[in-house]
Amino acid sequence: MRPEPSLEGWPGAAGEGRGALQVPLADLQPLLALAQSTGAGDVPARFGLSPDRTAADAGGTIPLTDYFRFWRAMKQASREETLYLSARPLVTGTSDFVISDAARTATLADGMERIARAYNLLHGGDYNRVERHGRALVYFVDDAAFPYAQSSETYIQLCLEGVLLFLHATFCTLAGEDLTPMLRRVHTRRPAPRDATPLALWDAPVTYGAAGFGLTYDAAIAARPLTEGYGLPPDHAVHNRLIALIEARQTAPAPAASDLARRAREALADGFQDQAVVARRLGVSVATLRRRLAADGTSFRGLRREVLNGAARDRLAEGSSVGDVAEALGFSDCRSFTRAFKAWNGVTPSGWRERNCSLKDEPSGRRQGDPHAV
Questions:
Q1: Is the pLDDT at 107 greater than 90, yes or no?
Q2: What proportion of the chain, given as a percentage, has pLDDT over 90?
Q3: What pLDDT, on the 0 to 100 scale, is given for residue 264?
Q4: 93-124 as b/e, with b when 16 or more CB fall inside 10 Å?
Q5: 86-95, 206-215, 281-290: the lowest-pLDDT one
Q6: What domains are there in the chain, each with its CATH number?
Q7: Given this model, what pLDDT does residue 366 score?
Q8: Region (Disordered) spans which residues (predicted)?
Q9: What is this structure's pTM?
Q10: Which residues, at least 6 apart from 120, have a Cβ–Cβ distance to it below 8 Å?
C-alpha cells in the first residue's frame, strides 16, 4: 500500500501555537524499564521521571521537548541509537555518519534518498523510501517487516512518530531553513487520533491507520540546495533544530478568529470531537475558543455540525450504509444519527442519498428544476 500523495485540498501549515506539546507517561514505560535494566536509572530522574512519580501519575504527561532531551540522554547512556527498539542495534555515531553522508549530495531530494538507502542498509531491509507523485515528495517508512525488539505497539507508534519529527528536523537542517510550511500531510500507523502525540507539532493533516509512517512535502523542496556545516556534530545540530521547532510552536502568537475557526474545523475532521480537547490543541482556553468563534460568527457546536454533516454526506454518496456512517462518526446507533441528519438537512439519510444520487445519474440539462430542461 502506498501513501496518499495527492496535494489537492491540503492546507499548508499556518504555524499557530497549540499550547504545550506533551507525551503520555504511560507510553514511556518500556523506555523507563530499559533505563533501570541497563543501569541508566539516573537518567530518568534528571527529567523528573522517578519510578514513584510514574507509578502515582499514570495519566500524566511530560513536555515534548523533555521527551526528546530524555531520548537523547538515554542514547548517550546506552551507546545504542535505537534504544533497543530494533533487533539490529545501531552504535553511537550512526546518525552523525548518515547525516554527514547525505549532506554531500547536491539537493534535498538527493539527501533524502541517501538517508533512506543508508538506513535500509543499516537495518537490513527496504523499510525507507522516497517517492515523487506529481507535486508531492514523500518520505515513507514501511515497518511491516521491521525486526522490532519491543512488543508494545503504543511504544512503537510513539517512537516512529518521534522518528518522523527527527527526520523533519534533519531535512530542515540540511536545507538550512524551516520546511514546516511545505509539509502537506503526515502518515501514521496509529489507528485513531488522540490528544497527546508528537504529531501535534504540525498543522498538516494526518492520515491515521496508514500502512506505515511518512511525511509528504510539496515537491518544490526537492531542488533545495544543501547548506554546508552546522558548527556542531550533525546529530546534535538536528536535535537542537528539533527543540527549536517545538519551542517556536509553543510560543507562536495566537491565531486570528477566522484562522482559529479553520484550525478547529481541521481538528474536528481529524476526529477530536470534545471542545476542551480541541481548545487545548489550539493553545487556547475553552472560553477563549468560544469568544473567538463567536467573533467569527460561528460556534463550536455549529462547526461540529458542519464537519459531521459534510462527512456524513460524503460517506453516503460513496455508498456506505447508514449504520456504517453512524458508527464511523461516533453516533450511538442508527436512530440517533438519522435524527441528527434529518435536523441538519430536513431529510433522512436514505432520502438524501436517493435524491442526490438520482440527480447525479440524470443527464445534464434534464434535472428537475433546470430551466433549460427539454
A1: yes
A2: 46
A3: 86
A4: ebbbebbeebbebebbbbbbbbbbbbbeebbe
A5: 281-290
A6: 22-250 (no CATH), 257-361 (1.10.10.60)
A7: 36
A8: 355-374
A9: 0.67
A10: 126, 127, 128
Please give the Cα distance from 114 to 98 (Å, whole number): 8
* Cell 499557530 found at: 16
pLDDT of residue 364: 40
Q: What is the pLDDT of residue 341?
A: 93
DSSP letter string over 308-363?
HHHHHHHHHHTT--HHHHHHHTT-SSHHHHHHHHHHHHSS-HHHHHHHHHHHHHSP
- Lowest mean per-residue pLDDT among 68-77, 143-152, 276-285: 276-285
Q: Which residues pair with 187 in a beta bridge?
A: 207, 214
Burial of 158 (0-12, 13-18, 19+ CB in 10 A): buried
Give the cell for residue 314: 460524503
Q: Which three cell numbers stand for residue 248?
A: 517556536
- Would you call 62 exposed, middle or buried from its count of C-beta atoms within 10 A (0-12, 13-18, 19+)? buried
32 close to 49: Cβ distance less than 8 angstroms: yes
The confidence band for 354, taking pLDDT boundaries of 50, 70 and 90, is: confident
Closest by CA position to 14, among listed 192, 271, 330, 259 = 259
Beta carbons of 123 and 86 less than 8 angstroms apart: yes
Report the alpha-carbon distance of residue 296 to residue 221 in Å, rounded: 34
What three-state secondary structure class fits 150? coil
- Find the angle CA(90)-CA(94)-CA(99) to the nearest 5 degrees: 145
**Grid coordinates given for 172:** 530542515
371: phi then psi, degrees, rounded to nearest 5: -65, -15
**Share of residues in the chain with pLDDT > 70 (%):** 86
